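Fig. S4 source data, part A: sequence.
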Amino acid sequence: MRRIFLDPYVLDTLLPDLVGHDRRPSAFLVYLYLLGQTSDGRRPHVAQSLQTIATRTGLSKSAVQSAIRHLKRRGLLDPSVQATVTHPVQKVMKPWER
């Protein structure tokens, strides 16, 4: 089992914002999963299919799609990166680190 470091912002601010205010707990789960996949800190890109993300988070594929759309609108995933079936890449953003 590997350990990851979470910036306090993720739990103190992002959790209540996405889950409480936006009422999108699936978006928080997807973001947390994708953030964990970039925990080595080398690259902010994650190349995993919607089905893999769905399986690993316990969400449906459509819930993952909806969550990704919401995260892009919120600026937590780079909206300029267009994932495709053959190139399923998402760029995880950390806007609090600017």
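Fig. S4 source data, part B ends here. The helical segments are 8-21, 25-37, 50-57, 61-73.
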